[in-house]
Specification:
alpha+beta; 5 strands; 2 helices
Length: 89
């Protein structure tokens, strides 16, 4: 697992497809986006919390996750990058 950023695809404990994207902030936390059931959540978690969520059998999707001026612009850019990555993967 990359310590700075990553996008993983997996099925959660309820067998629902899930996409998790994260990128390290300037402190010990990670900005994290979890997409499931046509809804997404934005969280700030630690590395150990992140490791608890991502299962071993998840698939890495190699996409770039930029930080932009605002949180909403950042999340929009992440979603576009993930969608593009899914189509080209």
């Amino acid at each position: 697992m990359n310590l700075h950023s990553g996008v993983y695809i997996f099925r959660n404990i309820y067998n629902k497809p899930t996409i998790l994207a994260y990128k390290k902030l300037q402190n010990l936390f990670y900005l994290t986006l979890i997409y499931r059931d046509q809804d997404f959540k934005i969280l700030k978690v630690t590395w150990s919390e992140l490791l608890d969520v991502i299962p071993i059998n998840s698939k890495l999707l190699g996409v770039y996750l930029p930080f932009l001026n605002t949180l909403s612009k950042t999340i929009d850019a992440w979603i576009k990058s993930i969608i593009l990555g899914l189509y080209t993967h």
